[in-house]
Amino acid sequence: MVGRIIETEDCVAEGAAWLAARDPRLAVALRQVGRLPLRRRKDGFASLLDAIVAQQVSVAAADAVWRRLQAARLTGPRNVARASDDELRACGLSRQKIRYARALATSGIRYAELRTMPTDQVIARLVEVSGVGPWTAEIYAMFSLGRADVFAPGDLALQEAARLIFELDARPSERVLRAMAEQWSPWRGVAARLLWAYYRVAKEREGIR
Length: 209
What we know:
The structure is a single chain. By secondary structure, the protein is mostly helical. It has helices spanning 9-22, 24-33, 45-53, 59-71, 77-82, 85-90, 95-105, 111-114, 119-126, 134-144, 156-165, 174-181, 188-203. Helix 2 crosses helix 13 and helix 9 (119-126) packs across helix 10 (134-144).
């Protein structure tokens, strides 16, 4: 089953209300951050490449690299596959991410087919590509496919926001946060938006692009 798809801000608001009713700590956090963003993106190669670019770098750094790739017209699979290492490096990609970008460009993913696949199958298909780990696949499923019940527990900003909201002694590990997020199903994708929004307010910086 594909499950609920987040298409509009009203979908996000519905999920936020459900979460606030379920957990008073999330209700407090929601009051502090206000209306949650939709964060929907187009699906396809460019969106997945964008998620790879954002791996393990700041939001500002990822934005800068993405702008250079766009200016160089290197956001499509054919152009990425044909580009030289020097051209990709000039846009700010590391040697490792150049390898990942090329792997994605030649992966043969049928992006339209992902829209109707169950989320676990989407994740499994995407992580077959070198450089696409669970975090990248979950971000794509959440934002580009709109899956309402996807979470990304390996995200450091989500871990830190959970620590603050739930007054934990330390950041929860990926395994622990994944278990915590089970209680937020079927709106784990909205819970992620709430935690990112809380991180932005608490830390005065963005935790996700």
